[in-house]
Design brief:
The protein is mostly helical and about 230 residues long. The protein has one domain (about 1-225). It is about 65% helix and about 5% strand. The protein has ten helices and four strands. The strands form two sheets. A two-stranded antiparallel ribbon has the order 1-4. A two-stranded antiparallel sheet has the order 2-3. A hairpin with a 2-residue loop joins β2 (about 190) and β3 (about 195). The radius of gyration is 17 Å and the shape is globular.
C-alpha cells in the first residue's frame, strides 16, 4: 500500500482542486493557469531525491529516475488550488485592470533562476532553497503591486492551513510514511501534529506566490462578489 501512498495523497488533494473548479466557474481559467505554471516544477523532483526524500511511487519511477507521475500531478494540483484559494475563501472575483495584452512573467522566471542558483551553491538544502525562492518571488510581486500584498499574505496562510489539514489526514492514513519516505536527518525534524515544519512553511510560500501570479501576470485585481 505504501507504494501508492504518494499517488493517493495527490488524489486526496485533487478533491479540493476539483471542488474549486466545479463550484467557481468564473475562476476556471485562473485554476488552469496556475496549474500549468506549476506543472514544470515537477521536473525539480530530481533535485529532492534522495536529499530531502525518496518516496515510493507508481512503477518506482522516482527511485529509478528521480521524477515520477506523482511529481507532475502534485505540482499541477498545488498550483491550481493555490491560485484561487484566496478568492474562494474571501468570496472574491477577478477583474481586469490592464487593457494591453501584456504578460509579466518576471517574478516567475526569477523564482526559477533563484532556486537553481541556490541549488548550485547549497546542493543539499533543496527545501530551504525552494522556500527562499518562493518568498522572494512573492516579495517581488508585493513591491511591484502593493494592492496585492493582502492577497499574498492571506493566500499563503489559507493555502498553508489547507495543505496542513490534508497532510494531517494523509499522515493518519499512512502513519509510517514520513519515517519511510523522508530523509529526517537532513531536515529540522520539527513536527506539527505529525507534519514536518518545512512542509508548512513551503506551503505558505506556494500560496503566497501562486495566489497572486494570475493577477500580476495577466493584469487583474480582485473585488468582492456581488
Amino acid at each position: 500500500m505504501m507504494q501508492y501512498a504518494y499517488f493517493i495523497g495527490c488524489l486526496i488533494f485533487f478533491i479540493i482542486w476539483l471542488l474549486f473548479f466545479v463550484l467557481r466557474k468564473d475562476l476556471r481559467k485562473e485554476i488552469i493557469f496556475g496549474s500549468i505554471l506549476a506543472l514544470p516544477f515537477g521536473l525539480s523532483e530530481y533535485l529532492w531525491v534522495p536529499e530531502y526524500w525518496n518516496p515510493p511511487s507508481l512503477f518506482n519511477l522516482i527511485s529509478k529516475y528521480g521524477v515520477g507521475i506523482e511529481s507532475f500531478l502534485f505540482c499541477f494540483i498545488c498550483g491550481g488550488t493555490a491560485a484561487v484559494i484566496y478568492e474562494i475563501i474571501t468570496r472574491k472575483k477577478v477583474v481586469k485592470i490592464r487593457l494591453q495584452r501584456k504578460y509579466l512573467f518576471g517574478p516567475y522566471i526569477s523564482v526559477i533562476i533563484i532556486f537553481l542558483s541556490l541549488e548550485f551553491i547549497f546542493t543539499e538544502k533543496t527545501i530551504y532553497n525552494a522556500i527562499i525562492s518562493l518568498l522572494i518571488g512573492a516579495a517581488i510581486i508585493a513591491i511591484k503591486r502593493k494592492d496585492l500584498i493582502g492577497q499574498i499574505i492571506f493566500g499563503g496562510i489559507f493555502f498553508a492551513i489547507v495543505y496542513f489539514l490534508l497532510f494531517f489526514i494523509f499522515s493518519k492514513l499512512f502513519p509510517d510514511y514520513i519515517s519511510t519516505a523522508y530523509t529526517i536527518e537532513n531536515i529540522w525534524g520539527i513536527m506539527v501534529l505529525g507534519v514536518p515544519l518545512e512542509e508548512i512553511i513551503a506551503s505558505f510560500g506556494v500560496g503566497a506566490l501562486w495566489s497572486s501570479f494570475y493577477e500580476y501576470i495577466r493584469g487583474y485585481r480582485t473585488k468582492d462578489l456581488p
